[in-house]
TrEMBL record:
Keywords: Hydrolase, Metal-binding, Metalloprotease, Protease, Signal, Zinc. GO terms for biological process: protein processing. It comes from Xylanibacter ruminicola. CDD domains: M13. PROSITE patterns: NEPRILYSIN (PS51885). Residues 1-19 form the signal peptide. Residues 32-411 form the Peptidase M13 N-terminal domain. Its cofactor is Zn(2+). It comes from the Bacteria. Belongs to the peptidase M13 family. GO terms for cellular component: plasma membrane. This is Peptidase M13.
Amino acid sequence: MKKMFFAVAMALVSLASSAQDLKANMDPSVKPGDDFWLYAVGGWLKANPLDKQHAENGAFTDLEELNNDRIKELIMKYAEKQMPQGTDGQKIGALYRLYMDSVSRNKMGYEPIKPYLKQVREVKTREELLKLMCDFDAKGFNTAPFGIGLSLNPFNSSEYMIGGGHGGASLPQEYYANPNEQQKKTVEAKKALFKDFFKMVGYSEKEAQKKMEAEWAIEHAIGIKTLNQVESRNPMATIHIMPWQQLLNDFKGIDWEGYRDALGMPKDIDQVNISQLEPLHEVEKIMANTSLDDLKSYVELQIIRSYSGFLSDAFEDRAFEAQKAISGVQEQQPRWKRAVATISGSLGETIGKLYVQEYFPESSKQRVVRLVKDLQQAFEDRLNENTWMSDSTKAKALEKLHAMHINVGYPDKWEDMEKFVDIRENENLVENFIRITQEARAAMFRKYWHQPVDKTRMVCTPQTVNAFYHPLFNSINFPAAILQPPFFDVNADYASNYGAIGVVMGHEMTHGFDDQGCQFDKDGNLKNWWTADDKTNYDQRTKVIADWFSEQEAVPGLKVNGQKTLGENVSDNGGLKIAYRAYENRMKQEPLSNIEGFTPAQRFYLAYARVWACNSTPEYTAMLVNSDVHSPARIRVMAALPMIDTWYDAFGIKQGDKMFIPKEKRALVW
């Protein structure tokens, strides 16, 4: 789940507001029932204006920046000395030095990709180009508008299988089919970028324009055939399992065996799950009917785009100009931060091991696990009290809740997937990342192919600033990097911590029961466990949330899509109610007093709002609405809380207040 974090911190600098700082964050001139966002965090918003390096600030940005500083410290231990080839320190240090060597990179310009572009330009036949697409795709150039890779069987998630589908479209379907104003601006920014990329590798203005239009025509033809963002949220709409031989017969226009062999995949593939059929058939048509020159344009651009961040500054600077137009950010991140992000992403477990040794002790892990268990108990309480669900479905829901695997901080078992990564400092970044890409794929098949699925496996690196629910594993995952303030503050009482950390715990659990998660059983298999009446009742209740959020205007003239964001909004609704129940359970044993005139219940909701306090550019907010399944931060406060009965009680919200919703119109799901 994007930007939903909780944290435990011992001996960490707090980024959060303690109870004593509540008033500084607030704007008491605003009535809580009229605009709770401004009431709770209006002071914070004024005191923390947006800087030039970010399109959005707030707690999440603070954690990212803290993370950057920490990982840089870890990297610099190896970046300033030579270490034996093949050691973790050598890999980290060499990759950092290569990235930071702007003199060499600028001198090379686009030379690292020049041999690959030359091969494309010298192609004489369609067959030769189609083979090159596969060969270059294996190197990470993303040149094939189709692909297959290791996946899980959604109907038997204890089994690995091959998944596949189309590529070629870099944006959601709506950007191609019926774009609104922000989406049109994004398309124009990308097309301008692509044109300039062609010019930067030697083409004239006229040639670059023609090649960009050729590439975009291919991208548009595929993109317009894909499922839109609402349709693609239906798991059954993206599952088409077939025998390998049927794939070869039904999609003859693609050389699947050639692709398989180019990527070094096993030859004993017996079945495959294709995500979407129609756009893949469109790919077949394009590869058969598009002119050779236009197909070359497509392949060339993918080569440039894939590794443009490893070429000269001119390429990164031009890409940032496009990002400015799309998100409204004004200033590029410094090179060292880009280096940190690159190394942390490509040597994720190697960095992760160092990260948890330094910043996340075992004691923290055990404390968080206990907190999650408390939230599970609160969820169980609410399920037992559920009045709209039959006993048989309720029993299945309880089974699923207790079957959830909890991953906290770092994995119980390290995967050791990066031990054969080879970083050679006498070669450029592109060649090194080709090897990283190839080794990552080979390591995955070595470790997992024909092996039982380990459902306890953590789906992210410890330094990831995020939290996740995995439906096929039925697991909730909280990496070490987010287990720190402001989501858990050792200086605040448990009322505030339940409002922040507790809501996130409940949110991730509720993802197992949102409109997507509820279709998977306790073992992570796509299997119905509902009675027909219960599912109808559930859909009616979630429709209340979808309809309500569809009324919310994020920026002038642009409203949230309640169906697209339903899973996140249902999970916020459930998370708030479950966390509040956990708070109530604890209050019975350890009563709290008022602080600075605020009741414990009020501190719970003020802490929730503080989690979402942020300033953002209008462009960024519009981009979020147009391309993300999450509602913007302000709406996650302003639209979520009016659905919560205990929020009304805590602040005395009454009819006539602007945020008031009659009780009979409030959503009751979990």
